[in-house]
Amino acid sequence: MEQALWKYLLSLFIFGSNGIIAAYIHVPSLHIVLLRALIGAISLAAVFLCMKNRVTVFHHPRDLFYLVLSGAAMAGNWVFLFEAYDLIGVSVGAVLNYCGPAIVVLLSPVVLHERLTKAKVGTLTAAMAGVVLIGGQAAVSGLNLPGLACGLAAALFFAGMVLLNKLIRHIHGLECVVVQLVTVCIVLIGYASIKQGLHISFSESDVVPVIWLGILNTGICYYLYFSSMRTLSVQTISICGYLEPLAAILLSGLLLHETMGALQWLGAFLIIGGAVWCEWRNRRQLSYSL
């Protein structure tokens, strides 16, 4: 449990740098996510083959169905999230995307039959309040509606991805991520060919951030993310998941010079406090049960 939590937190911090890296890539956002998916899928598929792992996806058609749907939801999340980064900035885009965990927690009793305790609702409320405070200053200054819509759409797809992933019972780890990224590639190739075409032109300065985004922030990071997710409760995933927008805001402030006011710092405190308190409560209840 503890190892899974640390892997999950590390993946969230790396994910928080996605928008910062994308800011250094001078191609349309749709092409950025397509390149990210292709490089991530190829790198992880190569690792999977080199490790001589046994392919099991075709033995579990029900899991494969949920896995493909989860990959399609991931593709939708990427498309809208990176478009939100482009339209309203990294910090606010990340904040809106993390309305998704709230949707997950609200739906988990129905979809996953997980018990929703008052303590978890309280910590989730604190985290959501932190998100509102962090995005409040930017929202007051005025944001364009398409950007806001993209951020909220990303949140919906995020929730769908997490819920579908929790329904997968027999496909695990690297194999799971490879199938999802291949699905993302197929969806994005079809979508890009219709909307913008598949011709991608970029300069030499784009090469390093594109490879970085594809291998580290996608291939390696999604393996950490999904392999840890299987042993964590959906409430822990949702509440600790708010560390990703916090990392995005801190990194965007340091590297992209996006400002962060007193209310946003208060929001950061609520996010971290909610995550730490939730984990402390879980450990305390576990010790009592023993």
TrEMBL record:
Q: Mind telling me which residue stretches traverse the membrane in this protein?
A: 7-27, 33-51, 63-81, 87-107, 119-139, 145-164, 176-194, 206-225, 237-256, 262-280
Q: How does it sit in the membrane?
A: Multi-pass membrane protein
InterPro entries linked to this entry: AA-Vitamin_Transporters, EamA_dom, EmrE-like
**Annotated protein name in UniProt:** EamA domain-containing protein
Return the similarity comment. Belongs to the EamA transporter family.
The EamA domain, residue ranges: 9-134, 146-276
Keyword list (alphabetical) reads: Membrane, Transmembrane, Transmembrane helix
Q: Where in the cell is it found?
A: Membrane
Coiled-coil segments? none
User: GO cellular component terms?
Assistant: membrane
Q: What is the annotated signal peptide range for this record?
A: none
Can you name the source organism? Megasphaera cerevisiae DSM 20462
- UniProt-listed Pfam families: EamA
